[in-house]
Design a protein that fits this description.
single chain; globular; two-stranded antiparallel sheet
Length: 314
């Protein structure tokens, strides 16, 4: 298919260059995040554990997902023919690379969403109930939630193939990535339609909850700022107020939520449109790769918003 990314040799070269640069950005940024979080005692907290989990999910995209697309596109440029496995879906061959890469990308996306949701919950407790923060949010509970988020996310990622024989995985010539697709059926049956809609339904439910909780936390922060101004000249200190670092962290998580929502929305629109029968070839390329670039945004947000992280990274 002649899409906006691949109609000319120049476009193909620019596309591959973009993918390669994205791999390096994802690997560098998230390795820095892991080095700072795991190598600094200050970050050995529930929030630090969640950030490390988010970095691992993003690293998996840079290690597995994007390199497969680079291989397929370079192979196509060099030999003037696509790799043989790109011509079939996962139901047509005994082993298909997308059987592994597709669920990894979907699973890591779900892990990112659930982790941002958990980060928001953690920060909201710190802001709204600062006296209960240490007793409610423990490292043990956080670790259990992280494990559950990974297990649940990857179960959801493989559920289309587990619960419907009509859904397969393929290397999509529009998005230049492994996508869920119909197997041997020519049109969407109701069961496959419902299963595929689980993805945007799950994602927007969590993202919606995350946005609401962030708004509540930010409203509480504004009220706290007003109270602090009134007490500025007073010697009386209110120990029930959240600390400045908790407020700063809550704003950082809010920024993460906005960034992820912006990067995921095009994918959700594409999935719904695709289920309704729209091809949207050019749009699918931009939608999937905008989502992939989100894997290198987190370290930039940490560096801009978190001074302690920035100092450790340097």
């Amino acid at each position: 298919h002649c899409t906006v990314c691949c109609c000319t040799l120049t476009n193909k070269i620019l596309m591959v260059l973009f993918m390669v640069l994205l791999i390096f950005a994802i690997l560098f940024g998230n390795l820095v995040t892991l080095a700072v979080v795991l190598g600094t005692k200050h970050f050995h907290t529930p929030q630090g554990y969640l950030k490390a989990s988010l970095a691992v999910a993003d690293l998996a995209v840079g290690i597995f997902v994007v390199p497969l697309s680079v291989y397929a596109e370079v192979y196509l440029m060099v030999t003037d023919s696509a790799p043989e496995w790109t011509s079939y879906n996962s139901q047509s061959v005994s082993f298909h690379p997308c059987n592994v890469i597709g669920p990894i990308f979907a699973g890591c996306t779900f892990v990112s969403i659930t982790t941002i949701f958990l980060l928001t919950i953690e920060r909201s407790i710190a802001v709204l109930r600062p006296l209960h923060k240490d007793s409610v949010i423990t490292r043990k509970r956080t670790t259990i939630l992280i494990v559950l988020s990974w297990v649940g996310s990857f179960f959801l990622a493989v559920s289309p193939m587990v619960f419907s024989s009509e859904i397969a995985l393929e290397y999509n010539s529009c998005s230049r990535m492994c996508n869920y697709a119909l197997g041997t059926i020519g049109e969407f049956p109701s069961q496959a339609w419902n299963i595929l809609l689980l993805f945007p339904a799950f994602d927007f439910t969590l993202l919606g909850g995350t946005v609401v909780i962030n708004l509540i936390s930010l409203s509480s922060i504004r009220q706290h700022s007003r109270r602090r101004k009134h007490l500025a000249m007073s010697e009386c200190q209110n120990t029930t107020n959240p600390t400045f670092s908790d407020i700063k962290a809550a704003k950082t998580i809010g920024t993460l939520t906005v960034a992820f929502t912006a990067s995921f929305t095009p994918i959700a629109v594409f999935v719904v449109g695709n289920v309704l029968g729209n091809k949207w070839c050019n749009f699918s390329f931009f939608a999937f790769w905008i989502l992939a670039t989100n894997s290198c945004w987190n370290v930039i947000i940490y560096s801009v918003r978190d001074q302690k992280f920035r100092l450790r990274a340097h």
